[in-house]
Design goal:
binds adenosine-5'-triphosphate, 7-stranded mixed sheet, Glutamyl-tRNA Synthetase, domain 3, 14 helices, binds magnesium ion
Length: about 575
């Protein structure tokens, strides 16, 4: 299992933090934050940021605040606040007591600081560092220029402090319609960094907010709200993705301009996670949900944390994935199969085994006593003796996997064929004596014999078989619906679509196959969320869609181990 001391080589951000801890730069401890905007569900990219921010807090006996960065009322919703809170708690389960920063058991909300933020904005105006501007949104853009074209001063830039204070108060009081005025920082319209060209700090939006209701009709911009929220919460290290690097001078400009008494937070940037066959734009994920390409944000094919959880990915596997990919400053794309490898590795250790047949072929064992049900001992998890064993019923009629039989076997096929003997897992040697076909010539049933002396799987006469196959006893089997998932996209980089093209063209039409399978009776009592290994087939997670009549299982991941291939490709 992972441990706090396991990170032997520190990433560059942890190095910086370690230096600050050694130098006792923050006597009150290390405080980070994870600041999602509640405008969608969290995805695997967010998991990287969560593991980094909460990980650093945990490793340094610090705290990481979960903060809703909710300054944009239009697209935000409590549904997202709740899902984000649930997903974070799930992902850092076991860590939370040590590092999760909450306020009275709930997340922090940037919108709780609207009053304080307003006060700081007034202070900037009083210091001559901000002014109310009457340019329209379109003119504001034009005046700003572009990286290769200098900006032009707004005609309102020299407005007096008194007039700006008066107008800002009236903006807050609701006197002006949306888009008619903004509060802007007075920095430098000719700066080579466009973010410093008198950025907007506040805009007017006569829209209710999911957390503050109708209390406000002016809302702070991200760049103003974020640094001040960090300061208010006593954040020491404000860690974000690389696209915010160009915002950092503004982050510092605002905080330094406010003459604040406590130590200021600092921003550090790392490369975001990109992954093959995966799209991480919340806007597009929302579009997939709204256009019913998937069943919801928690569809097991979604790259969301709730989707992966429903699919059966353990939190520990996602954390291990984040540990393996590391944290750096160069953007790259991680192979989806690395995540699957981590999932297999974790589930191999933890998941109980079970017998299930996805594509059943009926086998009648002619020399087995009619009506007799035997109970055979089966190991629950060979990787974990503590999981013990269970009893699996065996009878005269069993199902085996269609793929485990060939009427005319090729040279490299060692499983069942007419006249051939194989081992039934935990049971007996079984020999196929003949086949039964339907009118179309399809094999629909096998007639077979078993050797009672081979109970438990070995022959006393030393006879060898070349294959062991799984099975379920027909009389005791339960019907289960199994949902087989494949990649949601067929293209490796679904977000790389040309202007005007539809990213949905890359969707995999066969990403979901639903089949009816037969399973050993113990699977009828599995609780939703439990992942089992169906022997020889893969890992399967019980879904909450189950009914009293029928269990439903999502295939989490197949058994095939592709890490060797990944490493070969890299080397
Ligand atoms: P949007 O898609 O709406 O632009 P976002 O993906 O940036 O949003 P936020 O809610 O703003 O989502 O993200 C919260 C935090 O997660 C931010 O600090 C952001 O930098 C980080 N984050 C988002 N995507 C990734 C990613 N792919 N890899 C690592 N961190 C990420
Ligand atoms: Mg964002």
């Amino acid at each position: 299992m992972e441990s706090v001391s396991e990170n032997k080589s520190l990433d560059f951000i942890r190095e910086i933090v370690a230096g600050h801890v050694r130098g006792q730069r923050y006597p009150d401890g290390i405080v980070t934050r994870f600041p999602p905007e509640p405008n969608g569900y969290l995805h695997i990219g967010h998991a990287k940021s969560i593991c980094l921010n909460f990980g650093i807090a945990r490793e340094n006996n610090g705290r990481c605040n979960l903060r809703m960065d909710d300054t944009n009322p239009a697209k935000e919703d409590v549904e997202y606040v709740d899902s984000i809170t649930g997903d974070v708690n799930w992902l850092i389960q076991g860590w939370a007591d040590h590092c999760l920063g909450l306020k009275d058991g709930a997340p922090y909300f940037a919108s709780d600081y609207f009053g304080e933020l307003y006060g700081y904005a007034v202070e900037l105006i009083k210091k001559g560092k901000a002014y109310v501007c009457d340019l329209s949104p379109a003119d504001t853009d034009t005046y700003r220029g572009s990286p290769d074209k200098p900006g032009k001063d707004s005609p309102f830039r020299l407005r007096s402090i008194e007039e700006s204070l008066d107008l800002f108060a009236r903006m807050k009081a609701g006197e002006f319609p949306d888009g008619t005025r903004t509060l802007r920082a007075r920095i430098d319209m000719s700066s080579s960094n466009v973010w410093l060209r008198d950025p907007i700090l506040y805009r007017i939006r006569h829209t209710d907010h999911h957390h503050t209701g109708s209390a406000w009709c002016i809302y702070p911009m991200y760049d103003f709200a974020h640094c001040v929220s960090d300061y208010i919460e006593g954040i020491t290290h404000s860690i974000c993705t690389l696209e915010f690097e160009v915002h950092r001078p503004l982050y510092d400009w605002i905080l330094e301009g406010l003459d604040l008494p406590r130590p200021l937070p600092h921003q550090y940037e790392f490369a975001r996670l990109n992954m093959t066959y995966t799209m991480m734009s919340k806007r597009r994920l929302l579009d997939l949900v709204q256009s019913h390409q998937v069943s919801g944000w928690d569809d097991p094919r979604m790259p969301t944390i709730s989707g992966m959880r429903r699919r059966g990915y353990p939190a520990a596997a996602i954390r291990e994935f984040c540990r393996r990919i590391g944290v750096g400053k160069v953007e790259n794309t991680i192979d989806l199969s690395l995540l699957e490898f981590c999932v297999r590795e974790e589930l191999n250790r933890t998941a109980p085994r079970a017998l299930a047949v996805l594509k059943p072929l009926k086998v009648v064992i002619d020399n087995y006593p009619d009506g007799q049900i035997d109970l055979l001992e089966a190991v629950n998890n060979p990787e974990d003796p503590a999981q013990g064993s269970r009893q699996v019923p065996f009878g005269k009629v069993i199902y085996i996997e269609q793929d485990d039989f060939r009427e005319e076997p090729t040279k490299d096929f060692f499983r069942l064929a007419p006249g051939r003997e194989v081992r039934l897992r935990y049971a007996y040697f079984l020999k196929c004596e003949s086949v039964v076909k339907d009118a179309a010539g399809q094999v629909v049933e096998l007639r077979a014999t078993y050797d009672p002396a081979t109970r438990g799987g070995n022959s006393p006469d030393g006879r060898k078989v070349k294959a062991t196959i799984h099975w379920v006893a027909a009389e005791k089997a339960v019907d289960v619906e199994v949902r087989l998932y494949d990649k949601l996209f067929t293209v490796a980089d679904p977000s790389d679509v040309k202007e005007g093209a539809d990213y949905k063209a890359g969707l995999n039409a066969r990403s979901l196959t639903v089949i009816n399978a037969k399973a050993e009776p113990s699977l009828a009592a599995v609780r939703p969320g439990t992942v089992c290994q169906f022997e020889r087939l893969g890992y399967f997670c019980a879904d909450a869609d189950a009914t009293a009549q029928k269990m439903v299982f999502n295939r989490t991941v197949t058994l095939k181990d592709e890490l060797a291939k990944i490493e070969k490709r890299k080397g």
